[in-house]
TrEMBL record:
SUPFAM superfamilies: Ribosomal protein S6 (SSF54995). InterPro entries: Ribosomal_bS6, Ribosomal_bS6_sf, Transl_elong_EF1B/ribsomal_bS6. GO terms for biological process: translation. GO terms for cellular component: mitochondrial small ribosomal subunit. Belongs to the bacterial ribosomal protein bS6 family. It comes from the Eukaryota. Pfam families: Ribosomal_S6. This is Small ribosomal subunit protein bS6m. Gene3D superfamilies: 3.30.70.60. One of its GO terms (molecular function) is small ribosomal subunit rRNA binding. CDD domains: bS6_mito. PANTHER family: MITOCHONDRIAL 28S RIBOSOMAL PROTEIN S6 (PTHR21011), SMALL RIBOSOMAL SUBUNIT PROTEIN BS6M (PTHR21011:SF1).
Amino acid sequence: MIITYELMLLLRVMPKPEVKQVLRRVADHIFAKGGIIRKLENLGTRDMPYRTGAHGVMYNKASYFLCEFNAPPSHIEVLLDEYGRDVDVIRRRIYKKNALEPIECTLHEELLPPPYRKDVQSMIAEARKHDKPTFRFNTGLNYYPFQK
């Protein structure tokens, strides 16, 4: 079974040709384990929230990359181990991506006037639950006789 994952990579700041080589190594590891890369996104170089040490060096800035890929679940630990040994990778995290639930189109309901929409009717019914009960006249009078 193949599952979709997201890989968050923090790489040390380096020139573009070296970043390209690191990303090529990351992709080759995924391909070697039977994975398929769906999307690779560069989130830019920015300051890290706190100083982080990796491979004996402290880092304040990093290049952020997000990679979406499909791979068998049995190979995720191996990928994390390989990325942990790479000296150019400061941090790495792999998250299982949840499948998106299908969205039902309700355009025909949204185009109805507000009193005829189901959600508006349910809001009105909820508001009516909190109304105070009105006085029931059992005397045949059309007014409350004990009111001044």
